[in-house]
Amino acid sequence: MFKTExxxxxxxxxxxxxxxxxxxxxxxxxVAVSEAGALGVIAAGHIQDPEDLRREIRTAKExxxxxxxxxxxxxxxxxxxxVELVLEEGVPVVTTGAGNPGKFISCLREAGVxxxxxxxxxxxxxxxxxxGAHAVVVEGTEAGGHIGELTTMxxxxxxxxxxxxxxxxxxxxxxxxxxxxALALGAHGVQMGTRFAASTECRVHENWKRxxxxxxxxxxxVTGRSTGHPVRVIRxxxxxEFLKLEQRDASMEEFDMLGxxxxxxxxxxxxxxxxxxxAGQIVGLIKEIKPVKEIIGEIMAQARRELEMLQxxxxx
Length: 316
Known about the structure:
Order of helices and strands: HEHEHEHEHEHEEHEHEHHEEHHHH
Largest sheet: 8 strands, parallel
Oligomer: single chain
Number of helices: 14
Shape: globular
Number of strands: 11
């Protein structure tokens, strides 16, 4: 029922992409998502040795024959090496974040790799389309982690009107209602990060998952606006310390000292007070940790029910 152009482009059953979350999206989560019929994505943003990424890719290859992707954060100084590596390993899809991947698109396309940049503005969406991107993920400020300023509801339809390639909505989507709303805005599918981080197969620390289950609608906060690098996280001691630094116009060195290793501390070590627990505003919808296949099945079933309800309201 919900087969879109994105399914054909990526070779998946459901038009759903798993977000590439540093320290969270490893080969095992990506495989679980791909095996469930969506597109799993391995995050490379935190990786400091290209061979570590190669091992993740080869682990995924061993565990699934279905398509999966790699997310390359363009701020990572090893981004060029990561591009060479995914070409060597024959990864079918690359998503990118934190910048314009224009200089890499041509070589990836020539190798048959589908390129799907994450964008937070109409201007960047139009630019990457001109440079050859196959699709774009349009991420609203509701998302967890590094964010832009515009909301998903406002940004997605503007990008849909501005480009001719498939648009994937991200930010504030966790269930069938959000999925269906994204399609109504003109998107060809969705990307979800927070929802998959709260899955059985995600190997983050249990403290991280418990922080998700405790969180309510107003429990996320954005830090780093004054530095030009806003990040949405669950409010904790670290976030409060960041906000204090911003209030007194602290130096970048002070921000760096406070933030170094914070995401790893939360995701792997379970320090959810002085670690950075990235989460989108939909975290309050998460009531239970479930297997990826069950999460996707429930999303699609709910979307069908909601669509049928809308059709009945219209007399269709």
